[in-house]
Design a protein that fits this description.
single chain
């Protein structure tokens, strides 16, 4: 069914205007990725070889699916030239996102030709990344993260289909990507997933400390990631919570991660992070610690009414009426909305 839908949609592109037809690379990308997800690598190569042929012809499917074309050097060279020309044309038109998709198809072509040789595919990725960042007219940060995400997806598909690969190749790529984009949850999640398969969770903690809790080193100020995002800190806490006792995780370890996170720039004034810290202590029945975290939270974020309400919702048995009355008076003093007087 999906094969028929993609084929008809691609043939319809012949009736579209010139500029709109540039977007057809999205259909080709989705079509080939869908086949890769299904594990149909041979058929994916056969279909990809139809790129650039007469899209209005019903015979395109037959020509692209010939077994002789799959092993044909001429057909592969024609496809590579078509994808390269498309990438260069998109860059000249400043359509950088579409240029990334053309580059992605070039990498997929190398993957389908050298599927078990991930080092060759990695080289193709790096060559295309260098070309894109060097020739992009605008800032290359968004372009780079998009291309890295697509390559990470390709590697993930390769691994989940239980094909041979070098764990160090995948790990090196993810480490490099996290160093460049420490707030990207795709790279962070894939790194944790990859290491969990080998039960080496300390590597996850190590990369959190090295690349997330430290300022990213860049020579150019414009290449710095903003430091006011709490995603890396929350992910570090999440990984500590899920490590398990056998790998050294306990309440003190998680508490230490919370403290390190709240010392970072921006996160120190994050109401979300303070609330998570409070709920962690409350869930572990550390009521005195929870009360201390509560007071630290309202000092750090005095404008957040939700933090004040934590005392009334969870600390009634610990604080008592007089202390809760003091919290209420802080709400009034700071002119936060009060519906019911105490």
């Amino acid at each position: 069914m999906a094969k028929t839908v993609f084929a008809k949609a691609i043939r319809m592109s012949a009736t579209l205007d010139g500029m709109v037809r540039h977007d057809m690379v999205l259909l080709w990308r989705s079509r080939i990725t869908n086949l890769l997800n299904a594990g149909q690598t041979t058929f994916a190569l056969a279909q990809l070889l139809g790129f650039g042929l007469d899209e209005s012809s019903d015979a395109t499917e037959e020509r692209s699916g010939k077994a002789s074309d799959i092993g044909s050097t001429t057909a592969r060279l024609r496809l590579r030239n078509a994808l390269t020309a498309g990438r260069d044309r998109m860059l000249s038109l400043s359509l950088t996102t579409l240029a990334v998709y053309y580059s992605e198809l070039l990498v997929i072509l190398d993957y389908l030709v050298n599927g078990t040789l991930l080092q060759a595919v990695d080289n193709s990725f790096r060559e295309n990344l260098h070309f894109l960042t060097k020739n992009a007219a605008s800032s290359h940060r968004n372009l780079e993260v998009l291309f890295r995400q697509s390559f990470a997806k390709l590697l993930y598909i390769h691994i989940t289909h239980k094909r041979p690969y070098s764990p160090s190749t995948f790990r090196s790529f993810l480490t490099e990507s996290i160093a460049a984009f420490p707030q990207n949850t795709i790279f962070l999640s894939l790194y944790a997933w990859n290491e969990s398969r080998f039960r080496i969770d300390d590597r996850v903690r190590g990369i959190m400390r090295e690349l997330v809790f430290t300022t990213k080193q860049h020579t150019d100020e414009e290449d710095r990631e903003p430091t006011d995002n709490i995603i890396p800190q929350v992910f570090a806490i999440y990984t500590d919570l899920n490590r398990g006792v056998t790998h050294g995780s306990n309440c003190n370890a998680v508490r230490g991660t919370f403290e390190r996170a709240l010392q970072s720039e921006g996160a120190a004034y994050s109401a979300t992070l303070w609330k998570l810290y409070f709920l962690f202590e409350y869930a572990n029945h550390e009521m005195n610690r929870a009360r201390d975290v509560f007071y630290r939270a309202v000092r750090a974020c005095p404008w957040v009414k939700e933090l004040y309400l934590l005392a009334f919702e969870h600390l009634g048995g610990t604080m008592g009426h007089r202390e809760l009355r003091g919290v209420y008076e802080m709400l009034v003093e700071r002119e936060l909305r009060i519906r019911v007087a105490l």
